[in-house]
Amino acid sequence: MGCFLMRLFIALDISNRSRELITRKVNILKKHLNQGLKWVKKENWHITMKFLGDCTTQKKGEIIESLEKLDLKEEQKYIQLNEIDAFPNLNEANVLYLDVKRGNNYLKNLNQVLEVEMLKLGFEKNRYEFTPHLTLARNKDNAEVDLNSNFLKRNFINIYSKVDKITLYESKLDKDGPEYFELFTKKLK
To answer: Ramachandran region of residue 122, left (φ > 0), alpha (ψ -120 to 50) or beta?
Structure first.
């Protein structure tokens, strides 16, 4: 008998209003940037707090149980997304993203809480330093990304978004890109 696995991650969502404001700026970017980029659909925009990888149904239940018990405080009602950056860097942009400025420390602290809780469930601690961000596009073809300096100004995108819930998602990969399915959501206090 085979074991059914699902790709899971924990994320914070941004508000619909913020999605619309970001969309306007992304449409400008799309007109000026290389066609080799694969843009993330606006309905999939989120801030990944902890990628969990392939999990069994039983492990999913344990994760939900753990999230239910967590006393998560909403110390930061809003985050500010206001700068475009890339992983590993702007010269070799594999992932183009919006950097979180206001609320950065809050999200890093929240990530540490989640890391500790998921460690108790047998998940490995992330090897990389957590960088709160919202992924805009992926560079699948190693295309040259020439960001004109206007796009790099802090005020090109300057959007605040309410952050009031944390969600466990399942990611299903498809030829048109990933689809995300909400499995559990918890309001932050």
So the answer is: left
- Pick the catalytic residue from 25, 50, 133, 138: 133
32 given a catalytic annotation: no
Query: What residues make up the domain containing 177?
Result: 6-187
Residue 154's pLDDT band (boundaries 50, 70, 90)? low
25, 46, 50, 138: which one is catalytic?
46
CA atoms within 13 A on the CB side of 9: 16
Q: Kindly report the CATH number assigned to the domain that includes residue 144.
A: 3.90.1140.10
Q: Is residue 1 part of a domain?
A: no
pLDDT tens profile 37-78 = 889 999 999 999 999 999 999 999 999 999 999 987 767 789
If one counts the domains in the chain, the total is: 1
